[in-house]
Amino acid sequence: MIPYENLKILNRPFEEKLKNKFSDFLEKGWYILGNEVAEFEKEFAAYHQEQYAVGVANGLDALILSLKCCGFKSGAQVIVPSNTYIATILAIIHCDLIPVLVEPDARTYNIDPLAIPAAITDRTVAVMVVHLYGQCCNMDPILKLAKIHQLKVIEDCAQAHGAKYKNKLAGTFGDFGAFSFYPTKNLGALGDAGAIICKSEEDQQRLRQLRNYGSEKKYHNGVIGYNSRLDELQAAFLRIKLPHLDEINTHKRKLASIYDRHLNDSFIKPKQEPGYANVYHIYNILHPERDRLKQYLSEHDITTEIHYPVAPHDQPALKDHLKNFGYPVSAHIHQHTLSLPCSFAHTEEQIHYIAGILNKF
Ligand SMILES: *Cc1c(COP(=O)(O)O)cnc(C)c1O
């Protein structure tokens, strides 16, 4: 039996350190916004060669607080890919802004820069890009458009910790880089956690206020804030795992290269283009008989996932919020995509075995 993911095995190499950290934590008795959060923020910023990182409660909040920090008027429009995880779109809706869906490039699954201009109106205020599956978006043309039209750029980096485009890390291109440390992400906590990378002292201060009831000084509230603090214990755990992020990504890349080399041409594999360093949060293939393939693998005790089974424009929750133009590129991806096991918890042998079974389909 090969599960899609196994968090117990994934975190086993860190077990000793995690246990010791928990003992220290218990000993210290400081649970909210302590030294661990402050140190993790410094280390996470330093990893990105940036000055500012602010820990928040989860990835959705990282997106919401980034938008809130911009102070957009309600009803303004935000461009977002039509094939993202629903969180990206929910963040826009929760800020009383209008999501405007733009189709992805069918080869990369990421927002198609050539399709963005047609979506820009005089009400557009931001582009929210998503570096899906661990591959960065084609950032140069996006940043150029943003500059011309004075749009803020917010990066959803929930699947792209350590991913690079032209040697620059995901999360460092736009005004804000929003991260999730949900346990299955490439850098995963042992619970919910998130962070935002930002570019100015002013934004940093505002984000710190927003995450903590709008207060800079205890019981003095300058803005309408939230309770979205990065948990002290999760920050402590993340400090143990951050130094191993590159090792985790290297392992996932090695597993991906096994699929790349061994899977036959009936499967459409992720595109590798020069200038992109993919971290394979998800190793996805496209197949015309996706559902039958998933069933076949399941009969061989191999668990797979679908990211995602229902496109945002088909979600009942979003029915009143999105203009449903059908979005054929996104619909095609949603109908044919299958995510194969490709975790830090998997071995090269397991991937060779899975590739062999796949080729017999
Ligand atoms: C996981 C994920 C999120 C949300 O992160 P949470 O920490 O679960 O809130 C947002 N966007 C994308 C693309 C994700 O994969």
Automatic annotation (TrEMBL):
Which residues does UniProt mark as catalytic?
185
A Pfam family assignment: DegT_DnrJ_EryC1
Could you tell me which residues carry N6-(pyridoxal phosphate)lysine?
185
Q: Does the keyword Nucleotide-binding apply?
A: no
Per the UniProt entry, the signal peptide is none
Keyword tags: Pyridoxal phosphate
Q: Does the keyword RNA-binding apply?
A: no
Name listed for the protein in its UniProt record? dTDP-4-amino-4,6-dideoxygalactose transaminase
Source species of the chain:
Pedobacter hartonius
Give the source lineage, highest ranks first: Bacteria, Pseudomonadati, Bacteroidota, Sphingobacteriia, Sphingobacteriales
